[in-house]
Design brief:
Elements lengths: L17 E8 L5 E4 L3 H5 L3 H4 L10 H15 L4 E8 L5 E14 L5 E10 L9 H9 L2 H6 L4 H15 L3 E7 H4 L13 E8 L5 H5 L5 E2 L6 H8 L3 E3 L4 H11 L3 H6 L3 E9 L2 E10 L8 H38 L11 E7 L8 E10 L3 E12 L1 H19 L4 H16 L6 E9 L4 E7 L5 E3 L5 E3 L18 E5 L4 E6 L11 H10 L10 H8 L12 E8 L7 E6 L4 H17 L5 H18 L7 E7 L2 E8 L19 H8 L2 E6 L4 E8 L17 H5 L1
Antiparallel strand pairs: 1-2, 1-5, 3-4, 4-5, 6-7, 6-11, 7-8, 9-10, 10-11, 12-21, 13-14, 14-15, 15-16, 16-19, 17-18, 17-20, 20-21, 22-23, 23-24, 24-26, 25-26
Helix pairs in contact: 4-12, 6-12, 12-13, 13-14, 17-18, 18-19
Length: about 700
Amino acid sequence: MKSVMAPRGDAPTDDSASRTLVLGVDGERRIVQCGPNAEQVVGRRPAELIGRPAADLVDGDAKADLEALLEGITARQERTAVLSVRRGEAGTTDAVVTAQPMVAEDSAGAPSGLLFVRVALPPSERYQDPARMRRALMDDQLTRFGASLDLDQSARGLVDVVVPHYCTYAEVLVLESLVAADEVHAESGAAVLRRLAVTSDDGNELWTATFPEGEVLVFPDGTPYRDVLETARPVHLPVLDADAAREIAGRWRRAPAEELLTGVSMVLLPLVARDTLLGFIACSRIPGFRRFDAYDVEIGMEFANRAAIVVDNARRFSRERATALALQRSLLPTGLSAPSPVEVRHRYLPGSKLVEVGGDWYESIALPGARVALIVGDVAGHGVKAAVTMGRLRTALHTLANLELPPADALHVMHELMIELGEQEPHFATCLYAVYDATSGTLEIASAGHLPPLLVAPDGTNEYLTIPPAPPLGVAGGAAIESREFAVEDGSVFVIYTDGLVENRGRDIDDGLARLQSVFGVDTATRPMEEMAKAILAGVYADQHRDDIAVLISRLRRLPEDRFASWVVPSEPAAVRRARGFVRTQLDAWGLSDLVYSTELLATELITNAMRYAKDAKGPIELRLLYERSLVCEVLDGSAALPRLRHADDDEEGGRGLLVVSQLADRWGTRRTAAGKVVWCEQAVPGQDEKDDEPVPSWPGENHHRE
């Protein structure tokens, strides 16, 4: 009978710890074919099995289980079970039995199949065949665990291959500097090591208790472990007698080691890559198994040399990743600033270990006049280059924000910067820039290729805001960057984010955007900001293909009406005196009498300057006072010309106004508006810290940002 295997799965593979017998079974459940190794597997010669029912392979208790496997042949299904198989006169042994159907039928037209019976090798035969041992170590094992660039996972893969194919106990120890992602030096002798992975298959839990995983240690003199570190050569101990085991345990001050090491055969395999010792693999065979010989050491070193490359690759990747993360985190802001009515929280998560470091960033910058710049951006690509570009952009944007450029103008300057950077190396980035004015309750937003921001009303209704489209920063051509202004309801929540939050390999971006909207409900007005920030990131930590994520969430409230006052200044010289009266009355109402004199002088200089240089401009002059964490005095006029500070000559009558302002105020500045410009100055309020004293609670994943 010619048999052809059905394409339903591969036959069970043989390995160094098992032996497999292949039997052919016809439609009547009789054995019609038998492999030549029947006596080694089931203790009977092939001639004794041919023609007998397959049920004779097992005792009565297991016959029903075997029959269930054989029924799978009729149903054209592959089935596997662990059965107690008779082994000649020696009793029974546990075996993994697989029934696999065949395409061909027997002579009677009934379905036929194969039985694969796999039993464990006896200890005396487990490491007898060097060719089988080499094949088990070298064939595909290195490819399987070498695909990981994580040092811990690579070490775990190493010991899982070495045991049971090479020894009964194994541990991987590497230099502590490797784990710490530092430069690896040619350390030897008394080097500090860490045990990354431990495993054994003899059922003795004393191994992992005596040699715990994760332990940092220095091996004492006079031990074979120290010898392999000093020579970077394999150490072979065919057998450790009781005296040698006792001496090692004594020097190590670990009493249980004497019991474990007595009678074992040991080989220590150094891990050397790029002429640098990275650590070693300690391998032991307990009494009852064949002892290591010189050929075993040769096979082990061939494996260790290849494994060292895997460990070195993981070490280099870990170091580069740690460097990029440290660089990225150092470039991100360590604190966010905002006016007192605005509450801001941030979240930043680096990409998972399967994804390189990215270039996401965020920023919240308090601006004069109870305003705040809210920014989030994403540099295309990953790695150190993306992190460096992110740092450049963030620094430039911080400067532009302090220059008080409108969002669209600031992004245009950033676009020109990215074009210039692209001449050396192509780069582009998306960015969203928003400025919220707590006095008017308006939000001005400009976007360069970024995802739409989410605005949530206090009652939970929310929408993604439509911003005039523009290409990413650094992409030539396309529409010009424009901004749009929105009126914001007091207490609304504003969310800006990068694409890693709403998009991944297993989820469409529309689903991610819908999930983000579902986070907010009718309790938005009273729900704590920390709770909402936590809900936004729910479910992203377990994503093994997660890109880095930056989120900025802010609750936008108006400045209380009793902390803001304005007065239109008539275009006549006598108005300056009345303006001083207005300042005096308002500061007395706020309890800021100590600042009356200086504020009167500052307001006088700013108004006089506006009357002199903006007399031909359209529109009135307006004086505004804002009492927040500091006292801000603003003068608005219809002229677009910005004043500049200069030092007047001794014979000049004017030109000293802004010099007086710069001396009296803590800081001053100007900004253009749609109707003209604003000149402002700021004074610290005595006894009040400009920063918010309320501590921000810690949040899950905070160490990703601060480490």
